[in-house]
Amino acid sequence: MIDEVKYIIYCLAYFAGGGRLGRLSAKTLEQRWVVLRSAVLFCYEQIQKPLVGVLSLQQLFSTPVYLAAFIAERAQPHFPQMLSALLANLISVGDDRLGYRVISSRDIELRRHEPNQHPVIPTRIYLELINVLQDMLDQIHRGVESLECFVSKFCDEFYGLAHDVQKSLLPGGKANYRPIMTEVLQAHCLNEVFSGVFSCSHKRGLSPALLKMQYIVKNVIHLYTGMREQEVLRMQYDCLSDEIYLKEVVDDNGVTRDLARSVSVLSTTTKFTGYKKSESWFAPSEVVKAVKIAQAICRGLASIYKIDVDNDCPLFLNPAVLRKRNTDVGVGKLGNFYNKIPLIEGVRIELSDIQELAQTDTKRDFYSEPEFAVGRSWPLTGHQFRRSLAFYGSNSGFISLPSLKSQYKQVTLEMARYYSNGFQNLKTIFGYYDPKSNGFVLPNSHVALEFQMGMPMAVANQLLSDVLFREAPLFGGTGSYIEKQKARFKNGEVCIEDVRADTLIRVKNCEISYRPTFLGGCSKVGRCDYFLLGDFTECLICEGAIIQPEKVGHAIEAMTEELTLYSYGSGEYQVANGDLERLLSFKARFIDKDV
Fold it and tell me: d(Cα 231, Cα 443) in Å, to the nearest integer?
């Protein structure tokens, strides 16, 4: 970074231009240096964030997500103007000299919080939406093997019509009658699938039912990938692929020691001409399931459109062709306005949700916005899933989010694995090949970047709920400090708003962290060698430890039981017995004494 900033100063001095003499003054260069120095410090501070790591100035100035985080953390007076001026100078230097395209101040908002920013979905509502979407996806998936054949049968425009209608349209009498809709569903074993929200007892209800199925699939993709609205809508039929992110390891004798590892990837296109031309996203199993449903419906509709799904066919083919045979090939109306799902609209806002919203964006007055009034349906948009995924998902790998279902936590743990630091690999898997630069490019708007920079509010909230508001006492280095804070809070010496604000600031500044441990929690920032080796009893003497008495009791029970599995005097017995003695000693000196 020192070399980077030296080169940037050199470029500003000789190539930025400006003024009557065609160059920047010494005073102006000094102002640019102030911003650059702040940028270098910010880039290095990211080493404390496991998903990010140390950034380069190139990454900072060419990636909107990183730059937005930099702006949010450096909110001094006149800083936006100084940064804007620096960006303008770097743009005037040119891509060729710098080696990358710098973001223009017109391309970003120099204020992190805007009144119309998509809100983070509150935890309770988020969980309800996850459950609702998952249940409906499972309902549709029961018929995934039959959907293609079922839909394709409607190539016959009389298929599924009521007999009264067929009587007036079909020559030849009852001998030529096609099955009615209820008989068709029975024949394809789809009665359970086309029930409830997707119910269609008559043919005229089939097109809206399929559109709602596509709408559910679309939202599941938003939920688990963070793709934007247009990114989902422009997906092609053949959008799934497996990408190898670790090649197989073969020894000198030709024996494979480690098999290659791959990850399912969702792309806006899979047209290859030696390389991928479009960006990709991590596709967990739920997304793969959703895409399989969309593909089955697409194949059935393609037979009615008389098109080949392998030839630039959109994944979400418009089912309106079932009603109008001259419908153009394209995507149906998948917006919220056209697809009213009672189970989604039934998710109502409560006062606790507004309070949580206010914590996620302290500069926005949600209480005065009518669409977030208590009792109203949550105003869901696809982009909310993107922001919420970055908010919750990037933290769920390090903390316990008891209000989020375990399946979602597993997905976000996988995402953390693939979206973690290792920028070159990230670009190779989820980016696309750029023939101009002769390398892989990760689009600067990719959700992986937002996932890496996920906001620390969830860490602060979890730290407060798991630790500060416990009735049972805490021990350990940090635990003792928190006990003192709890006493001050109970005595009215400090208010919860101040504690919450201070906690959030300290988390944002990477001064404290939080993750659950075998004996309670850990507030240490950075790596823990003992945690890596499984030496959990080191927490008993660690300054960053938060020791919970009940967990110490559970550990003693577990170690006592484990001792019975080993021969007396064996190495395993001595190690386990040593851990047990340390736990019993700690309990006798601190916990039992306190009781």
Answer: 12
